[in-house]
Amino acid sequence: MLSPSIYLTSHFGKLLFVICDVLSGVLLYHILTLRGLSSDAACHFSALWLLNPLPIGVSTRGNAEALLAILVLSTLLCLQLKRHFTAAFLYGLSVHMKIYTVIYALPIALFISNHKDLKNHYKGVFRIIQSLFSKDLALFAAVAGAMFLGLTLTFYCMYGWDFLQETYLYHLTRRDIRHNFSPYFYMFYLTVESEFCFVLGLVTFLPQVILLLLTSLAFYADLPLCCFLNTALFVSFNKVCTSQYFLWYLCLLPLVLPHLRLTVKQGIGLLLLWFTGQGLWLAPAYYLEFEGRNTFVIIWFAGLLFLIINSVVMVQIINNYIPKTIVQQKKKMK
Fold first, then answer.
1. Where are the beta strands (DSSP E) in the chain?
2. Quick one: which of 207, 205, 213 has its CA closest to 173?
3. Exposed, middle or buried by CB within 10 Å (0-12, 13-18, 19+), for 246?
4. Which of 78, 95, 85 is closest to 135 using CA atoms?
């Protein structure tokens, strides 16, 4: 994909990712209008992504997060339009590009299988079992699975076992002892030569799995909200967490903000709290990286505090979120 950077210009990759940033804003606009916002309101909320300095900085330094934003937002748009074949194609491609998008599989499956075309005389467990045989869900699973497996097989034939190891399997055993926002980094730093290091790396997935399962079951009916929460939880509790990972959920934030009943003052307060958490981590990280001082414990405590701050922000979003159905009912009453 980035071969033109060699043959045309070294800036090709950066230009590509910047274009993807702009296209992500266009996709946000279309999704927001489908969710009932006026054209002006959709423009304002889309601008929160387009004018955000973080995605601008990440894209212009050559990171491909904007490309994933396009794939995720395109999938959501197609699902809103009930174009399940196209959505499945895009979703399979997104999982191939970056494996983290597999966290959307359960909420997407529940979202597709929860439409009114299912017979209502089954309830409880029987309804869930019946929903698994939905034609739309079967189509989505078949197309997405074929897309993912087809690409995996193609690249395996080209690059062999190294492709599987570096692309997928590596994440199961990854233990990054370099300082990062993750609350686990110091544990991995201290146990890097321990015989239990591999087991610890697997155990850290447990909080993520539990939280993702709970949020998927609770919020799947509002897919953008569910995907946002799943991504924010996944990043916050991940074994490795860096600033570019924030873009994974920030690209979904404009879809959530219009449905919050927070005041501007409260919203700015939460934003400042989030930035404060990063600042408290970055200060000791600077002294470790550039001054050579031993600030590992301080960085670890700052990472724990940042996790708490992220949790507080997510709780506030959940508590102040007005479901899409309620908004639509109020508009009809008017």
1. none
2. 205
3. buried
4. 85
pLDDT at 129 (0 to 100): 58
pLDDT at position 6 is 73
pLDDT of 75 reads 97
Distance from first CA to last CA of the chain, Å, rounded?
Answer: 50
Q: Is residue 56 part of a domain?
A: no
pLDDT of 330 reads 46
Domain carrying residue 288: 179-334
Q: How far is it, in rounded angstroms, from Cα 22 to Cα 295? A: 39
- Could you give the 3-state DSSP secondary structure of residue 27? helix
Q: CA–CA separation, 223 vs 111, rounded Å?
A: 7
Tens-place pLDDT, residues 183-224? 888 888 888 777 777 777 788 889 999 999 999 999 999 999
pLDDT of res. 198: 73
- The ranges of the chain with pLDDT < 50 are 116-122, 326-334
What's the length of the chain?
334
Question: For residue 14, what pLDDT is reported?
Answer: 79
If one counts the domains in the chain, the total is: 1
Assigned domain for 280 exists: yes
Using left for φ > 0, alpha for ψ between -120 and 50, and beta otherwise, residue 36 falls in left
Cα(245)–Cα(19) distance, integer angstroms? 19
Kindly tell me the sign of the dihedral angle through the C-alpha atoms of 182, 187, 193, 195.
Answer: negative
**Residue 40 in domain:** no
Kindly tell me the sign of the dihedral angle through the C-alpha atoms of 21, 314, 181, 102: negative
CB contact burial 309-333 (16+ within 10 A = b; e otherwise): bbeebbebbeeebeebeeeeeeeee
| Residue 92, token pair as written in the block | 């399979």
224 touches 251 (CB < 8 A): no
Residue 331 and residue 116: Cα distance in Å, rounded?
22
Does the residue 202 lie in any domain? yes
